[in-house]
């Protein structure tokens, strides 16, 4: 799995996050772990872990089966 593949999937998710005033930035891909930084309204939001797990991680795993987990950094 390459940074470009992960970025392409994040680009599909981004409009939904931006609609709520947030965003996500790819920080690194290390093996099966994708590290992202939540930005804007997502940063510090009490629901951000839910967004990360049920939104970002779920979509990445569906599109890129080699993703093991997504971590916020």
Quick take:
This protein is of the alpha+beta class. Helices cover 45% and strands 29% of the residues.
Give structural notes:
Helix 1 (3-19) crosses helix 2. Helices cover 45% and strands 29% of the residues. It is built from 2 helices and 3 strands. The mean pLDDT is 90. The chain has a single domain (3-72), classed as GMP Synthetase, Chain A, domain 3 (2-Layer Sandwich), CATH 3.30.300. It has helices at 3-19, 48-63; strands at 22-30, 33-40, 69-72. The radius of gyration is 11 Å and the shape is globular. It is an alpha+beta fold and 73 residues long. The chain has a 3-stranded mixed beta sheet.
Biggest beta-sheet profile: 3 strands, mixed
CATH architecture: 2-Layer Sandwich
Instruction: Kindly report the spatial arrangement of strands forming the biggest sheet.
Output: 1-2-3
Low-confidence stretches: none
Q: Name the helicity range.
A: 40-55%
Which geometry do the CA atoms define?
globular
Residue-averaged pLDDT: 90
Span from first to last CA? 20 Å
Write the H/E string, N to C: HEEHE
Strand portion:
25-35%
Could you name the key traits of this structure?
globular; 3-stranded mixed beta sheet
Please give the structural blueprint.
Elements: H1 3-19, E1 22-30, E2 33-40, H2 48-63, E3 69-72
Parallel strand pairs: 2-3
Antiparallel strand pairs: 1-2
Helix pairs in contact: 1-2
């Amino acid at each position: 799995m390459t940074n470009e593949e992960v970025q392409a999937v994040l680009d599909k998710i981004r409009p939904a996050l931006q609609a709520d005033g947030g965003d996500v930035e790819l920080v690194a891909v290390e093996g099966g772990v994708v590290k992202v930084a939540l930005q804007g309204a997502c940063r510090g939001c009490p629901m951000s872990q839910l967004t990360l797990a049920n939104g970002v991680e779920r979509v990445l795993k569906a599109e890129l089966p080699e993703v093991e987990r997504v971590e916020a950094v």
